[in-house]
Specification:
It contains 36 helices and 5 strands. The protein is mainly α. A 5-stranded mixed beta sheet has the order 1-2-3-5-4. The longest helix is centred in the middle third of the chain and has 23 residues. The radius of gyration is 28 Å and the shape is globular.
């Protein structure tokens, strides 16, 4: 927000502080004297807080609290925030409670902070009083009171009234138009928080309702206004993960946050989650330990720690962590939601059903819990129980789009457009319009696949095995994710296989169904614990065995990745999937995994592959599995695979292979704008523009 030449030093400092220009803002604050000095110290304390300089902030706040008056209330708000950020939520609550009945906008700010802390401590019923006192002010609030309207919205959000929150936020944004920061009397909110807090609150609301697109718009605007605000960078990391699982971009945002505020525990919590998805247990533990060393009350970080212990088969550690979290907040159902998010990544669907039933007892009013439970029950094949649970979730939260979409699919579209047929141990669902063809070919095709794989794996899938084909991408996407457009063609949930039908769009549906049936065996034999790279590679191998012409033709791309050392080590091959920067990178990851399994079967035989799956099922780590099943240390296993692959692809050693640049448009634009940009940088930008169909600029 621009300032004018008539702004006071405090006004200039507020403008610079809002832009997170910390050095210049501090310089302006040093010029402030007289009646504005106390407010300047309040702003300076906030700047220290935003950068994790808690001791410096508390020194200033202590003097302000001793002075009394309305600024003392705001000083206590900031003091309480710092106490909470350092892990002392109970003390923060006790600091604010005596002032909860005070009057004025400063007291409203205090009540908002108190309500949020009470919820964080598992005292939601007690939080209703200060938060409802804020929402009750809405009727008499001036339309121009942008700060008050934002606080009403936040209170409504904390009270689980998303519609009221969104309306108040919109009214606040309209009221703030034309307001120039630094001119006139600053509001309590402008003194104690960066003005972009409203945008971050809205982003949190959007993410909670599965709307990462609008969340990204809000956070992007926040970062344009406050480019060095650590919590905004953490928010963008969350958006990147929620939107596209872009681990590298998320890590870039986290690094930016920690560069400004090394005491930002939430950044370490998000980083721990990335490591856990990569299968890097020790890295995840290290990140959660850093978060909890800063803030022992960071319940998100402790929940990720619990998920890490569950995935690592440390059941006793998981139970201790759960008890620790619920000891701090007996109503924290989000513990189970967080753990379920990572358990889902590892195919632990039965575990998720169990834990979400427990979660529903911890917080029976959280619609997200029932939504997750219902959707997971559907993934296990329990459609009756899943739909009943989703209807209960819908009664709690009318704004959960995943629940709405899934109920619409099951209650309207499936009955009208699909038919179910049971053939032996298989339960099929397919489009009514394709029934004649699919009823003729699909059961025999499935039977052939299962018989073929039974011979190799020595077991049969649990009956019934559900095979579902959907006539539109929207129906398939909703069935598998609750959202209308995911960019894949088939999914395996262990006892349920879902895929697009032959007439939905042009693709090799036989290849896809055979591939997904391969997952059924790998998941069952490993007790839902097989790493992604191994099960994807094994399913690709199964399709190659069935029909060699189904193999992906990516030898050149695979060769380039090998010689450039772009592939992770075999034991950490999950990173090839999780850190892919493009669809082509994902395809290369699949092909590399397929070749890793071709090498493994050729070198060690299928019985050893089966043994590896069984070892994962017994809770062994990937290094332990490689040592026991294949008799090799992980580094040696990887070394021999690469030697095998280089020998097989040696025909390319003396060939020129053109490599198409694969940078994102944002990255390519930045690099091409540098003074020392090379011809290759400009070529990469042209290719990125072409991928976006911008022929003129390319």
């Amino acid at each position: 927000m621009p300032s004018s030449c008539s702004a006071s030093p405090l006004g200039e400092a507020l403008v610079l502080a809002a832009a997170t220009d910390y050095a210049k803002s501090e310089a302006e604050l040093a010029k402030v004297s007289g009646k504005d000095r106390a407010r300047a110290d309040l702003v300076l304390a906030r700047l220290h807080e935003e950068r994790g300089r808690f001791a410096d902030a508390l020194q200033l706040l202590g003097k302000l609290e001793s002075a009394g008056g309305s600024l003392a209330l705001l000083a206590k708000v900031q003091h309480a925030r710092i106490l909470a950020a350092r892990g002392d939520v109970p003390k923060a609550i006790e600091l604010l409670k005596p002032e909860a009945g005070a009057k004025g906008p400063e007291a409203r700010r205090l009540r908002l902070q108190l309500g949020e802390l009470l919820i964080h401590a598992g005292r939601r019923a007690e939080a209703d009083t200060p938060l409802k006192a804020i929402t009750d002010e809405y009727t008499d609030m001036a339309e121009s009171d942008f700060s008050g309207l934002a606080e009403v919205g936040r209170a409504a959000q904390l009270l689980r009234s998303p519609k009221d929150a969104n309306r108040a936020y919109q009214e606040s944004e309209r009221a703030a138009k034309g307001v120039r920061l630094g001119q006139g009397e600053p509001t309590p909110a402008q003194l104690t928080a960066n003005p972009v807090e409203l945008l971050l609150w809205r982003a949190e609301l959007f993410l909670d309702k599965y709307d990462p697109g609008h969340a990204e718009e809000a956070v992007k605007e926040a970062l344009e206004k406050a480019p060095h605000l650590a919590v905004a960078h953490v928010a963008m990391a969350r958006v990147k993960l929620d939107q596209s699982l872009d681990f590298d971009e998320a890590e870039t945002e986290l690094a930016a946050a920690l560069a400004v505020n090394p005491e930002c525990s939430s950044a370490y919590a998000v980083r721990a989650g990335i490591a856990l998805r990569d299968g890097e247990i020790e890295a995840s533990k290290a990140a959660t330990q850093k978060a909890l060393a800063i803030n022992r009350y960071d319940l998100e970080a402790e929940s990720v720690a619990g998920a890490t212990l569950l995935i690592a088969e440390d059941k006793a550690g998981y139970e201790r962590t759960k008890a620790s979290v619920l000891g701090k907040n007996k109503e924290y159902g989000s513990f189970f939601i967080t753990v379920a998010e990572y358990a889902d990544w590892e195919h632990r669907y039965d575990d998720i059903v169990t834990m979400m039933k427990e979660a529903a007892k911890v917080d029976p009013d959280d619609g997200r819990i029932l939504g997750t439970l219902g959707l997971t029950m559907l993934r296990t094949g329990d459609e009756k129980g899943g739909i009943e649970t989703l209807n209960k979730a819908w009664s709690k939260d009318k704004y959960n789009v995943r629940v709405f979409n899934t109920l619409n699919l099951y209650e309207k579209q499936i009955p009208a457009q699909y038919e179910s047929v049971t053939v032996g141990p298989f339960a099929f669902r397919f489009p009514r319009s394709e029934k004649v063809m699919l009823e003729r070919y699909l059961p025999s095709f499935t039977g052939e696949a299962v018989a073929s794989m039974k011979a190799r794996y020595g077991l049969l899938p649990d009956a019934p095995l559900n095979i579902e084909l959907y006539e539109s991408r929207e129906h398939f996407s909703v069935r598998t994710s609750g959202l209308p457009n995911i960019g894949i063609q088939g999914v395996c949930f262990g006892r349920v296989v879902a895929a697009l039908s032959p007439e939905s769009e042009p693709f090799n549906w036989g290849n896809v169904v055979w591939h997904e049936l391969g997952h059924v065996f790998a998941i069952k034999l490993s007790n839902y614990r097989v790493p992604r790279w191994f099960t994807e590679g094994l399913s690709e191998y199964e399709t190659i065995v069935r029909r060699p012409e189904w193999q992906r033709e990516m030898d050149q791309e695979f060769y380039r990745a090998l010689v450039r050392n772009e592939l992770p080590a075999a034991a950490t091959m999950n990173r090839a999937f999780t850190h892919a920067k493009s669809a082509e990178d994902v395809t290369i990851a699949y092909y590399a995994a397929s070749q890793l399994l071709v090498y493994t079967v050729e070198s060690f035989g299928m019985p050893k592959v089966r043994q590896a799956l069984e070892l994962w099922g017994k809770g062994k780590t990937t290094p332990e599995v490689l040592r026991t099943a294949f008799g090799l240390e992980p580094a040696e296993y990887d070394k021999r695979f690469r030697e095998w692959a280089r020998k097989r692809l040696s025909r390319y050693d003396q060939q020129y292979l053109f490599a198409m640049p694969r940078r994102s448009l944002e990255d390519a634009t930045k690099k091409a704008a540098l003074p020392n940009a090379s011809a290759a940088d400009h070529t990469a930008l042209a290719v990125a523009l072409l991928r976006k169909k911008d022929r003129d600029d390319a």
